[in-house]
Amino acid sequence: MRPWQRFLRTSLIWTLGLGAFSGLLYATILVAQAPIPEDAHYLGSHACGTCHWNAHRGWEDSLHPKMMRPVDQEGVVVADFHPGKMPFDPQQAVWAIGSRFEQQFMGHDGRTETLLPGSWLVDKGEWKTKGWDGWQVPVPLQRCHGCHTVGLDVETGRFVEPGIGCESCHGPGSWHRNTLGLGAIASTLDAQVCGPCHTRGLSTDGKHFFPVAYQIGEPLEDYFRESRPTLGQNSAAWWGNGREHKRHQEYGAWKRGGHADSLQSLTDGYDGRYGEITSACLRCHAAEAAADPRRDFTLDEVEHGITCAVCHNVHGRLEAARYQCSYCHEQGAFFHQPERNADHEVCGAKAEVTCVECHMPLTAKNGGGLNLHTHHPGIIPPADTEKYGVPSSCANGDCHTDEATDWLQAALDRHYAP
Length: 418
Hints:
Layout lengths: L2 H31 L19 H9 L7 E2 L24 E3 L4 E7 L4 E9 L4 E3 L11 H4 L1 H4 E2 L10 E2 L3 H5 L3 H5 L22 E3 L20 E3 L23 H7 L7 H4 L11 H4 L4 H5 L16 H4 L14 H4 L25 H5 L2 E5 L2 E5 L8 H7 L16 H11 L3
Antiparallel strand pairs: 1-2, 2-3, 3-4, 4-5, 6-7, 8-9, 10-11
């Protein structure tokens, strides 16, 4: 082969190679930037484990996948079905709901799941059969399945996966998988991801107790009418001071607290009294900066205040704090006025109480007792107990439950007296 022919062949190969590479690169960019197709469908969490094995393993160890499991799966049933204690024939049970605080069961009537009459209270070791559901419509397809299954079709009752799976929070994953991870999938720190299941209310048509057809990234209020407290008045779901009385209301309570408005406090009307807004400020005012503290953010790059995913380990033990309160609040509530923190602890350090015990006391019932912390941070004074019956920050858990309410309020007043 002559030199000019060799040169021509080499140039042609390089040209074709570069063209193919450029085309592939262009196609890759197009796929990565394309919106999730409307026909994307649910796959089930098993499809995520191959690539996202660490997050998948943490999810498996969490409570989320344990929210709805087949009763014949080993270790699922914690309720006592000994003769004489059973509120229903255990042979009717197909699905078990929950396991930590209480456990309920579903059967199947040949068409759809049915809720069986009784709830096992785990801590008390007994069945609750009187008013056991507390629901006006105890029909799983209308009440439970929107949060206890993945990929629910409300018309047929079919679902892709029982429990709370990866796609409960990330949306349908077929596009992401079929494009080998290049295609988009929902991934956000927005608290609205948690809101559909951690708040009470009705779908906009009033037929379901969850937001039908809601997709991650859309405004939750377009699909759901949330339950809200009436201040000054107790209800079945809320105390009169605006704290949760029943479970599944963390999102609604969070929206009433300062964490939800932490970013807005910097963007709306900040008068500069504490200096220029820097990335250091955003680490405690914006979810994006809190979740990635090594990166320097600007106000234009953040969107959300301190949301659920900042404090909770969403791919692992949900009850284990991802960050401690001291990460932002240091030694007290007054970050910018540390001198005011000297008398912050009413009981003193020797009491060894935590921030959560006083500022997020147990107010919500689950499993027959007060087992859930309010997600509207702030001290609940004993005076509120007198007004509404809500547990106060002072008499809560193992603290001061034997003291009279008026004595506790007087002690609190003396401590913070001018």
